[in-house]
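Hi C.,

You asked whether I'd gotten around to modeling the 202-residue construct. I have! Everything is below, sequence then structure, no commentary in between.
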Amino acid sequence: MKPKKYYAYNVASIGAHGITDDWDVCKEIVSGKHDARYKGFKTRQEAEEWLRLGAHYEVKVKKEIEKGIYFDAGTGRGFGVEISVTDEAGKDLLQKVIAKEFINEHGKHLLSKEKTNNYGELLACKYAIELALQEGELRVFGDSKIIIEYWSKGRIKVEGIAPETRTLAFAVKKLRDEFEAAGGSVQHISGDDNPADLGFHR
């Protein structure tokens, strides 16, 4: 049996906010709302604290995290895959690596509708490493194991993977090799501890 999870949501445009332990209820409330903010928590107390602090994705209810550059991707606003790159405080950094016209009002980059979430994670990883090299930062963090342990190392299968995704994976591998040769590291963390987390994970 899966452990119980609590979903906190806040949608200012319709005056909706609250906590539910039913993902389908949360999804129905927030789906397609441009200003929807929601996130899953292990305890009701954590969910209540997140809402109390203003339902900001960058606010961390939990432990203090390490200095570095963090990345994530998610689909929860209902318009496609968004990517996020931030510092340890949750400050958006994408404007340092891509043009402003490609960044939405939330400080994120929305991909075209055919892109998968894993592609988004891989692209976000690329931008995070590029930014780390640019800024002289030595640590990059993300919560996708497949990206950090496989795809960003060039370990990606041919079957069922779009050529564009494989090409991107090899480009990220080259960047990662350069980054690690300079003393950098790409590390896996829990989504609960990721300040770039888009809050769109079940």
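If it helps when you're writing up: The chain is about 30% helix and 20% strand.

Thanks,
B.
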